[in-house]
Amino acid sequence: MLPIQITSNPFALLMEPEAVVQAMEHSDRLNRLQRRICRPLDKQTLTPGEADAASFDRAVEAEPEAAPEPFIATSSGAAGLI
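Above: the chain sequence. Below: its structure as tokens.
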């Protein structure tokens, strides 16, 4: 077990990582814990609405960008006629 002055200061534990690992390996409390392996899913499943949106996004991103329309400035007198 680690001396009391080292374990009371968590920053002191950073200076002796080997002592921490050794204490963890010999800890009865840690050995009694129930363990299980959790693995993330390989692929996220999408609902039909999300799948449609994802395919639409891919189609939009695959299209080449169109040239922007030219900006035509109008005079203030013409704006009043509309």
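The helical segments are 4-7, 10-13, 17-25, 28-31, 48-62, 76-79.
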